[in-house]
């Protein structure tokens, strides 16, 4: 089995043209969405925070190995070049009496102002450059939006889509709304089934998976049902309201690919099942472990 840097090198070398085209398509979709309502996307879900990420020794974007760099909300470097082995010297965790969750923060800043983000928004702005010329050009264009300050808005604004859905049907017709992020669609539906004491039957052919996503998942050995979906939602509605909710979603810019993918049923076992494209039926289980690529 091949993993890590070597796996990435083999994938890129064997199919770099398709991977580049998919990446460019994804960037263009994001740009088109932003252009429809820039004022909304520049501010919705925006919160100022510190940023923490790995960078290469020369400041380049690094996803696997490197040194730790932290910036404050204004973009000023807090510390740089720290070893990942010194994590406990840099980060501390706070606990609250009202939750089991922990709250990590930068020791040098303190618990009140030391919390930080570590996702793509932090990585792209924390590094000095991306070694790939195409990616670096897009990174520079993105950073330029901030006009000299870090960009802090990174959420898809689904509130108008939800408002349109709720307005289209009587109160109570929309039973459940969830975002299929961690664990993807499959894990989200399993959580709902367990919590609600019901079963579900999905139609594989009805689940909207873009051809680019299906091809990339096949190449990487991943199941798209378990891939995190940012800026998406799952809705469970009363049967008589399904058509009206679907029409309202498809009329909204963020819901144009909405689809009815299955139905809820009585099931003491609380199974999520799927009718496959080949006419069979299988159980859609919980995500087990990490969705690492299978390259054998």
Question: Any key phrases for this structure?
Answer:
296 residues; alpha+beta; Phosphoribosyl-aminoimidazole Synthetase, Chain A, domain 2; 2 domains; 4-stranded mixed beta sheet; 9 helices; 12 strands; 18% strand; globular
Write a concise synopsis of the structure shown.
By secondary structure, this protein is an alpha+beta fold. Helices cover 35% and strands 18% of the residues. It has helices at residues 4-36, 38-43, 87-90, 120-126, 133-144, 159-167, 184-196, 211-220, 242-250; strands at 50-55, 67-71, 77-82, 91-95, 102-106, 116-117, 174-178, 199-203, 234-237, 262-265, 272-275, 281-283.
CATH topology of the largest domain: Phosphoribosyl-aminoimidazole Synthetase, Chain A, domain 2
Dominant shape: globular
The biggest beta sheet is recorded as: 4 strands, mixed
C-alpha termini separation: 5 Å
Number of domains: 2
Q: Write out the CATH superfamily name of the largest domain.
A: PurM-like C-terminal domain
| pLDDT < 50 stretches | 292-296
Supply the CATH architecture of the largest domain.
Alpha-Beta Complex
Radius of gyration: 22 Å
**What is the CATH class name of the largest domain?**
Alpha Beta
Give the SSE string: HHEEEHEEEHHHEHEHEHEEE
Helix content: 25-40%
DSSP helical segment count: 9
Order of strands across the biggest sheet? 3-2-1-6
Mean pLDDT score: 86
Let me know the number of strands: 12
Classify the beta-strand content into a percent band. 15-25%
Secondary-structure class: alpha+beta
